[in-house]
Amino acid sequence: IEERRYAPADIESSDMAAIAAQRAIEDARCDPETIDQIIVAHNFGNVIKHTIQIDVLPALASRVKHSLNIKNPSCIPYDILFGCPGWVQGVIQADAYFKAGIAKKCLVIGTETLSRVLDVYDRDSMIFSDGAGACVLEAKNNKETTSGILGASVQSHCEGEVDYLHLGKSNYPDSDPRIRYIKMRGRKVYEYAMKHVPVAMKMCLDKSGVNISELKKVFIHQANEKMDEGIIKELYKLYGILKVPENIMPMSIHNLGNSSVATIPTLFDMVKNGLMPEHNLNKGDVVLFASVGAGMNINAVCYRM
Asked: What global pTM score does this model have?
């Protein structure tokens, strides 16, 4: 990690979410009054800098709706807490509402200010950063388009794994024990991800009817470069392939750090908008979104551009 981004003191998670949402709405050429649901994934809500006090009243999604000046009372805003895989889970949830006929258009946002909850005396603090990403999903008739979500998989392990990421006291000996910060059992998270994430990714591809040879890009949660590379190698090994294709996995952790729910949508945005020249996307390409995080939770979505 060469650099990472921290939000200024006057910007909250909900502010970043609203900015990302506005950009997504403009990119989609969407009338915001036609949005049926606003789904905001986060873990800590708004945290006023230097307080470590979590604020989720009202929900961040409600604040985003307010910031976007959406008047439609049938536009329903709500938050989801699912660890780092929260944004991907929001995409899966929106797709489920489409299939149920409950919604036709959803705004899915991931936003986090991890800089507000990290312990500066913990070396893990160098990993975490702030960020927000958003997309507009719309249900389309299959006759109108061949692109879209092909399949998804979700897994959760909440036995001994439940405390791999948690809130705990500072590493500073004389710190106030009542004030808690994000803590991670890094080795356990690494081992868990290496064991379970490739299996979930394969499950997603198999459910989608996609051969591994068709996969063009993998957008994986930016938590640890070594771990992500290991996960991709294990995925291909599950198909009996020992050599991973070049440029299959874009990485942004070197410049953006780990912004939790925001890593995948911001990474996808960078590739989509040509900010990573070595990576490109074309209509018909099959990509995989995959994430792992607190819970412990894992999910994956297979998508055709």
From this structure: 0.94
